[in-house]
Here is the input.
Amino acid sequence: MADRRNNRNRNINKEEQSDRGRRPVRQIRQGKLNFVLGAFVVVLLVLAVRLIYIVNEHGTEYQKAVLQNQAYDSTILPFRRGDIVDANGTILATSEKVYNVIIDASVMLTYDDDRYFEPTIRAIRETLPSLDADAIRYYVTQHEGERYYIAAKRVGYSEISAFLAVQAENDYVKGVYFEEEYKRVYPNGSLASTVLGFTRNNRSSEGQYGLEEYYDSYLTGTDGRQYGYQNDEDTLQRTVVAAEDGYTIHTTIDANIQAIIEKYLKQFNDEHMNTARQGNGAENIGCIIQNVNTGEILGMAQYPDYDPNDYKNTDRLLGTMLIESYVNQAGYTIYKTTDTPITQEIINTIPEEQLNINLSNLWKNYCISNTYEPGSTAKPFTVAAALESGAITGDEVYTCNGALEVGGHRIKCHTYASGGDGAVTVCDSIAWSCNVALMKIGQAMGADLFCDFQSTFNFGLKTNIDLAGEARTASLIYTADEMVPSDLATNTFGQNFNVTMIQMITGFSALINGGYYYEPHMVSKITNSNGATIENIEPRVLKQVISESTSEKLRQYTRATVMEEGGSRRTGRTARPAGYAIGGKTGTAETLPRGNGEYVVSFMGYAPADNPQIAIYVVVDRANAPRQDDAKFATGIVRNVLTEVLPYMGIYMTEELSAAEIKELEEKQLAVTLDQGAGSSSSSSSENSDYITDGTIIDGTGESANIYPVWMTWPVDPNTGYRQNPTTGEYIDGFTGEPISGDSYTMDEDIPINPNLEYPTGE
Amino acid sequence: MAIGTAEIKQFTKKQVRRVVSSGFDFNLLFILATILGFGLIMVYSASSYVAIRDFDARDYFFKKQLIWDLIGLVAMTIMIFIPYKLFNAWNIERWIMYIAAVVLPLLVIPFGKASHNATRWVELGPISFQPAEISKILMIIFFASWLAGIKEKINTWKYIGISVGFILPVSGIIYGVTDNLSSALIIAMICILMIFVASNDIKKYVVIGAGLAVLVAIVIIVVYNADLSDGASFRVGRIYTWLHPGTAADTTGHQTIQALYAIGNGGIMGKGLGQSVQKISALPEPQNDMIFAVICEELGVVGAMALIVMYALLLYRIYSIARETKNRFAFMLVVGVMCHIGVQAILNIAVATNSMPNTGVSLPFVSYGGSSAVFLLAEVGMVLCVNRINSREAKK
Here is the structure.
């Protein structure tokens, strides 16, 4: 073996040696090889250039030739894009057949005596008023051989039916035919616009945003074709390959609930427009209603919205804040929301590219694409995590003096101006929205546990809702190792990390429903064009985030935030709709940069309190008001929406109605559905009595009742009815001790913030 | 009998391990797989209408091509493991191969099957194949062996003459008997390029190149001014339409002008996969020689460029293997395969873009066709075999 190898090597060496003559032979051969490869590559390049030349020089000419061929012997049979329907089968998006009017000049001019031409032009003049018959006459005479001239695009059937009738009767009307196409139509205008999205140029393909984009592959079908060909005997044959229509998407959205939400978002906008500044009632208002027990979205809306039938219309931009883009030093494009409300003048003057940036912002779904600091609506999550992990038992009582010193920073409670909440039970910490108690709970947990639970509740992760454009928030929350004590403290009450609305409500549903985290979803079923089911999408539990017993406590605490048992200082009572018991939590978050008086206020709740069925979350981003930090902006919308949605859903009232409430319902033409039967009223009262007999709560409220907060001793101002701080002169709500109702506070500017929050891209 | 399945298994295992651990060119394999996959998709797209029309099954051609590709890959794998020296062990071998290359095309006379007005297929029982495709691979091996055998003698005019002389019978028979000018041309071009690379002389080739250029120019000028009114030959007609595209869109130039329409219709970005209009009836057999036009129409200049780049990369990988090859026979073998792929790809694209007269050349690894796929893949197998043995020797 070795011998043979040696032999071979020797042979090779011999060959090498013989190759080595006067000149380095191998080198020349390599050079020639290089030449051949080089020649191949150069020729390939030349061919590529030739390709570009063909397209550039003759592209349109050849394209036209193809179209002429095609019109003659092959036509596209367009597919129909699938519908989008709501939970009750109401059509939200559909496709309408429209027609392109095609003129075939060569057919019209078949005979020299114009026996087709004149009758056809007359028929066009008489029955197709939208077309200019004289212009067509001129065109045809100028382009005798032309077979494919589009005289009008996308006209409805009603517009061409008269012509079709004439054409059927008169054999001399020839050379006009109609190419079918589908146009995307949204019969309800702007209803659910940001959920639906739209299709590019309202055609059948290329869904943009929302369901249209996410389910584009399901909604899109395949074009069919009718074509002719010469068979072996040289006769023309026609074959039809039928189009395959797209699938229909059945959403979980209820158009009625959606309409109620949108009505009140718009009402809020109209009431607050142009009050403290020019422009909309708030920079953004968003609302989601979710089925607590399945994760299905029943309604998801925002203001401003747009009309997907006419999505490029700039009217909806009026009153929104102008977004400017610029490239920063690092080379990234930064989108910055300015303080300038868009006016018609701005629309007319800014460059188109900037206008498009603002339009695409309008098309974004605020509920899933925008991130913000949640504020106190995050408190139930902190408390749930602390209870679940055993860091607290729920029996603790904390003392709030209005602020807490953490990591060298003084972090305030919203009662800072009035000297603090005094003694605060765990329940009170939510019901009264006490930052100090929450910070102490956070300290009991520690950063590791807190961050663990943030990811348990899916903060920092996508919920994977079936809508296009959900924001990534991974960089917008802290990890345990980068978290300093002041970060933990501010995080406990929902500042200094960003969330999306869908993250919040989905997590909240899990807190309420016994701890089951459902994947939020918009679509329950996909059917084909014949109505046969292609796919059923069942609710999917992803994980159990907390135990049933922790969930039960959270239901109590959040109920106490809204209902009587929370005491006079509860923060969420303005959210309660007439006749119903609900639970929930308010939130008031200061936006960046701190200290300029801008706030995001929100309310997150569930209803009905004794048998949770829906969760609702309303966010009002920088309301147009002299003071933005009023949670009543959000609770007001929640109250209005629930007042109509709960009866609509067939949920009975359980609470006594006051005379004023009965009058309100009458004005809204809503029936009083108070169930006087034993069933539900007793269940509600037993719920209450259960609540009262709960040992810890009695102890808690008992203790706190003994200690009166400082502000209760302050004098009442006779003009306003508010108590007034004798030292600062600030007015305090006489019942809650808050400076204006809500749970707002101003954070000192020295408290460090997560730098990623400065310009959350939301992508 | 003597070799049981266990031995085969063990042998295969050992071989595979050896290949994986050596400097085996997986880049080449990856590029090849990309082109093959791309080709399958395009065959499916280009042929779907014809398939429905003629066979009532959208995937008729696609399925057949898939099977052919798989057979080709098996052939390739076999070639990787057959040491190339077996093809050059005895002098007699090369002559057998040469005779086979000459004789095989003659088989169409007794066993021929007419298709598209030309008899190019041989039908033997269930198997039908294009003998020209076999002749190509045989001629590559023969020439590699011949040139390695005569060594430096190739630098003399005499041996250049003899070598060119070998080409004439093969190309002549393929052109004469099967009326397949393109295959005849491709074989000639491969062999001439091999002779060119084998010799270490440059001056002679400058002379030859200049002579050829003058000849081609004369032909073009004569045809350009030709009067086609009476009895001009089919070939002259084709050259004429090449020089005057669009003048004869209904006769000889039909295919070419339809291909140009397809390219123009596709534009820069293309109409989208499956959206070609030209493939429906304007382009005859769109899955075949004119598949490049369908690619242009559906994927645009961008898609076509991507394919061109893939070819350039493939050629570069084969070139790199040739550079590392010390054995003369193996070197010429790799050069031959490289020339085959390069010439065929260029001719096909050149025809589709009307850069040369229309002649039926298939696009390597992309066009529909069994013989072409199997033998081209087998050739790549030989290249990989050379690479395998190179890297094994480099290790020692």
In short: The CA atoms of residues 385 and 658 of chain A lie 38 Å apart. Residues 367-757 of chain A form a domain with the Beta-lactamase fold (CATH 3.40.710.10). The longest strand of chain A covers residues 91-103. Chain A touches chain B through 47 residues (CB under 8 Å).
